[in-house]
Amino acid sequence: MILVLTAAVVALIVSILGTPAAIRLLVRRGYGQLIRDDGPTSHHTKRGTPTMGGAVIILAVLCGYAMAHLVRLSAPSASGLLVLFLMVGLGIVGFLDDFIKITKQRSLGLRSGAKIGSQAAVGVVFAVLALRFPDEQGYTPASDALSILRDTSLELGSVLFVIWALIMVTGASNGVNLTDGLDGLATGACVMVFGAYTLIGVWQYNQSCQIAPGPSCYELRDPLDLAVVAAALVGACFGFLWWNASPAKIFMGDTGSLALGGALAGLAISSRTEMLLLLLGGLFALITLSVALQVGWFKASGGRRLFRMAPLQHHFELAGWGEVTIVIRFWIIAGMFVALGLGVFYAEWVAGA
After folding, report:
1. Cα–Cα distance for residue pair 215/327, rounded to 1 Å
2. Taking a C-beta distance cutoff of 8 angstroms, is the pair 229, 58 a contact?
3. What is the pLDDT of the chain when averaged over all its residues?
4. H/E stretch holding 280
5. Alpha carbon distance 191, 231 (integer Å)
6. How far are the Cα atoms of 218, 222, 296 from residue 203, in angstroms, in the given order?
7. Cα(167)–Cα(165) distance, rounded to whole angstroms?
8. Whole-angstrom Cα distance, residue 64 to residue 228?
């Protein structure tokens, strides 16, 4: 537990103290957020708010993870490093997207093809490497079997696994990206989901087949180190939320949203809880679904809209809800999904035991 607590505390300190320095730097360089003209008019007051704050989250996570291992003089694990690679790789893609928006003074950064292609490249490298580096028991950071709450008997094979991992990575990263539309909304929801993965990692470690062999023990590599990564993400997001809550002094931008979404996918794949992510990250799934439904209905109905605006949070803005009200209620929904997901995870272990 010292590893987990150290990672969370150090990441929190770096994030909460480092974000004001980032705000001053970004303001001095004029790196402010551009606002879509077709979005809610209330957002026009946010024009010029510093963006790319996700870089602070990434730095805080790396510092928290490194310090945890320095304190205990323990070596990083392959699983932990691969999740961090996925987070940093997608964060770089998001940084390029944000930087182009700012320098070109347009609300769209990377072209869609370049953005998706870059995300895909990072995801493929992660998936290929995750099937390597077996430990003493032969467990690799990821398995080519489809997992729900643990690995199932359905073997995908290497090629299908890479495709499946790519779908998860792009889906999770874009899901967080779509959610990041109101002050603190995505950051607060991420705190809850990463908190759940911290608990899952600790539980899987305590109930691993090496420590507690039995009918419900978990067969996977490095569950404790995955908890350390998740705890660092909790601390980093908590610290950033202090400055990102309404009225936000800084936005995470695509730098943060793509990185956090990638970390979610990496933790789900490495902890063998791939399908559980749909439940734990239910808010992200709902908001992504609202965009898909809006586009599909618009094309099928000849130009009619299902929602006043997508993603879903903007529909409620145009319906007259206050921003803080929407954020708090969506946080409640996110918390309910996380609680349900943890309940399902624990119930499966109890049933097996």
Report:
1. 42
2. no
3. 92
4. helix 276-280
5. 9
6. 9, 12, 41
7. 5
8. 9
